[in-house]
């Protein structure tokens, strides 16, 4: 029995998925997490460490890790890589000034060996803002089409209105599920 | 807000629940173009119902709590089934590819290394949708003098460059002019959407952003010795590379970076943060100087800001993760607070 098979079997019992949510500061990660969880989103402070929430979705238990994106704490991101099934990369679609930063950080992450098996969901957040770039524009700006190492998808969403958040979760859970659990 | 008691909880919860159930019944009749919005709306309302129960769980009789939570769960399950049936699959763009057996194939990683361009290409993004002031010295800058980017044009890829419209400068708040008379050309729906502002490379300028125009995030970069007044905004104030400025602003989040020697008069409903900053001094927002209370409250409400919650003195320094006070910031003493500075910018200096 190969390593992958054993891994698969062990996880099959719990059907647990570990999602790591990253992105530049102010992208809206914590707002997305709280919105999905039905919590108040009006008084969220910038994240100094991390938040974790466990949610049931389509029969899976999702552990979502939301880690702060301020520059001085990005170096801690790597402490959360282990065992990650899905990376959720959140983008402030209206923050045109920092798209290059955003691209650089994402592509650096994708070279991380410990994230190499993870599915990548890009949330083009803040679509409710009139100045927001569309998902296609973000896809181009982040050069997603150059990614050959990960399954990926991009979806426009708004943490403010809740639009498309669950669709994104559907995709990432489905993609991970089909790789890890239903492969036999 | 009215106080919730165990006696009146059901009286407010049940009608909301009934409305949600009614809208769930009606969901199959909603036109296709509106189904996503209707579902989003129901998701939010069901979340509110759930929150109402969980917030009050300690005061509710166990029976009520159980009944209400079961109603929430049932509604949420029904919605999820209906959503699956009724909502067209969203427009995803994704690239599928054969799975790389990463656990056994380190070569996949090398491909990834090689494929990532080492040189960052210049972003070709159009920044014209920000309302922008940049590269000025010694000027008085008023947001009412700027053209408002028209977002409708942006999504129309076939059109030429985004068209613009002028803000009607008669609708400004100053001097007791009407508050709600917003007569911008694009109609209320577009005008109500908050616009993001960028302020870059300004020296010795006075910047006045107080206007009827709803503002979202304020992106500030490289300001020297400026004074700026920002009305309640629905997004964050994001500041980089500033020095010797006085900033007066009200926002959801305040995030300040690589700046020094700043006086900051703030209303912020979450903990303000500083990163790589020194000599930052904080004080409360000078409410009365900016606008008469009723007009200011209107702006707070429009921006979704809680007027009674101000955490200006709960500053978190990302470079000082210890219990003791950070050496990089302090509160302004009462004697140091410069009375009248906002008023001067908004009224005296403008005239
Ligand atoms: N208009 C709009 N604003 C949003 C949306 N999502 C988040 N925001 C705002 O963006 C700001 C940042 O949100 P956060 O959730 O704190 O961002 P974050 O990614 O967790 O930031 P860090 O914790 O510093 O990494 C807040 O002012 C939010 O209200 C959205 O969909 N639309
Ligand atoms: Mg956060």
- Cα-to-Cα separation, first versus last residue of chain A: 13 Å
Record the strand order, biggest sheet of chain A. Answer: 2-3-1-4-5-6
Global outline of chain A: globular
Q: Provide the number of structural domains of chain B.
A: 2
Under the CATH scheme, the architecture of the largest domain in chain B is: 3 Solenoid
Count the beta strands of chain A: 6
Model description:
The complex is a heterodimer of chains A (184) and B (351). Chain A is 30% helix and 23% strand. Chain A is built from 5 helices and 6 strands. Chain A has helices at residues 3-14, 29-36, 99-110, 135-141, 165-180, and strands at residues 16-22, 50-57, 60-67, 86-92, 119-125, 152-156. Chain A has a 6-stranded mixed beta sheet with strand order 2-3-1-4-5-6, with helices on both faces. Chain B is α/β, with parallel strands linked by helices and 351 residues long. Chain B has 2 domains: 6-86, Up-down Bundle (Methane Monooxygenase Hydroxylase, Chain G, domain 1), CATH 1.20.58.1250; 97-348, Pectate Lyase C-like, CATH 2.160.20. Chain B is 31% helix and 25% strand. Chain B has helices spanning 9-26, 32-55, 62-86, 107-115, 151-155, 188-192, 287-290, 293-302, 341-348; strands at residues 93-95, 131-137, 140-142, 147-149, 164-166, 195-203, 206-208, 215-224, 227-232, 236-240, 246-251, 253-257, 260-268, 273-275, 278-284, 316-317, 329-331. A 7-stranded parallel beta sheet of chain B has the order 2-6-8-10-12-14-16, with no helix packed on it. A 7-stranded parallel beta sheet of chain B has the order 3-7-9-11-13-15-17. A two-stranded antiparallel sheet of chain B has the order 4-5. In chain B, helix 1 runs antiparallel to helix 2, helix 1 (9-26) packs parallel to helix 3 (62-86) and helix 2 (32-55) packs antiparallel against helix 3 (62-86). Chain A: InterPro entries: Arl2, ARL2/3, P-loop_NTPase, Small_GTP-bd, Small_GTPase_ARF/SAR. Chain A: Keywords: GTP-binding, Lipoprotein, Magnesium, Metal-binding, Myristate, Nucleotide-binding. Chain A: It comes from Mortierella hygrophila. Chain A: GTP binds at residues 23-30, 69, 125-128.
């Amino acid at each position: 029995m190969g390593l992958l098979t054993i891994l698969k079997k062990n996880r099959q019992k719990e059907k647990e998925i570990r999602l790591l949510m990253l992105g530049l500061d102010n992208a809206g990660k914590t707002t997305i997490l709280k919105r999905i969880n039905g919590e108040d989103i009006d008084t969220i402070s910038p994240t100094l460490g991390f938040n974790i929430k466990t949610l049931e979705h389509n029969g899976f238990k999702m552990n979502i890790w939301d880690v702060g994106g301020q520059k001085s704490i990005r170096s801690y991101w790597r402490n959360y890589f282990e065992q990650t099934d899905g990376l959720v990369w959140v983008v402030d679609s209206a923050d045109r000034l920092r798209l290059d930063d955003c691209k650089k950080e994402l592509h650096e992450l994708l070279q991380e060996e410990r994230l190499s098996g993870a599915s990548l969901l890009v949330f083009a957040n803040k679509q409710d803002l009139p100045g927001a770039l569309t998902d296609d524009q973000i896809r181009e700006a982040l050069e997603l089409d150059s990614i050959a190492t990960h399954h990926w998808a991009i979806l426009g969403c708004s943490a403010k209105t809740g639009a498309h958040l669950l669709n994104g979760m559907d995709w990432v859970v489905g993609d991970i599920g089909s790789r890890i659990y239903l492969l036999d | 807000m009215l106080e919730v008691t165990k006696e009146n909880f059901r009286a407010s919860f049940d009608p909301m629940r009934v409305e949600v159930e009614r809208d769930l019944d009606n969901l199959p009749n909603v036109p296709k173009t509106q189904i996503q919005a209707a579902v989003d709306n129901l998701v939010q309302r069901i979340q509110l119902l759930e929150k109402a129960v969980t917030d009050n769980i300690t005061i509710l009789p166990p029976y009520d709590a159980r009944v209400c939570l079961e109603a929430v769960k049932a509604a949420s399950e029904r919605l999820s089934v209906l959503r699956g049936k009724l909502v067209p699959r969203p427009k995803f763009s994704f690239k599928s590819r054969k799975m790389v057996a990463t656990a056994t194939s380190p070569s996949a990683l090398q491909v990834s290394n090689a494929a990532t361009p080492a040189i960052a290409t210049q972003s070709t993004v159009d920044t014209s949708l920000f309302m922008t002031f940049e590269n000025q010295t010694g000027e008085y800058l008023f947001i009412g003098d700027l053209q408002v980017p028209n977002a409708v044009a942006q999504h129309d890829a076939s059109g030429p460059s985004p068209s613009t419209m002028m803000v009607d400068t008669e609708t400004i708040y100053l001097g007791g002019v009407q508050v709600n008379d917003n007569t911008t050309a694009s109609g209320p729906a577009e005008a109500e959407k908050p616009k993001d502002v960028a302020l870059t490379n300004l020296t010795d300028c006075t910047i006045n952003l107080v206007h009827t125009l709803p503002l979202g995030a304020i992106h500030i970069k490289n300001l020297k010795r400026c004074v700026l007044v920002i009305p309640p905004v629905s997004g964050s104030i994001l500041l980089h590379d500033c020095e010797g400025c006085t900033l007066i602003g009200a926002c959801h989040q305040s995030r300040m970076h690589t700046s020094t020697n700043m006086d900051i008069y703030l209303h912020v409903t979450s903990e303000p943060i500083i990163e790589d900053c020194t000599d930052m001094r904080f004080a409360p927002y000078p409410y009365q100087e900016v606008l008469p209370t009723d007009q200011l409250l209107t702006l707070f409400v429009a921006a979704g800001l809680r007027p009674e919650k101000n955490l200006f003195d709960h500053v978190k320094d990302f470079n000082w993760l210890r219990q003791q006070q950070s050496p990089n910031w302090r509160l302004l003493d009462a004697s140091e607070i410069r009375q009248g500075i906002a008023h001067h910018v908004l009224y005296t200096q403008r005239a």
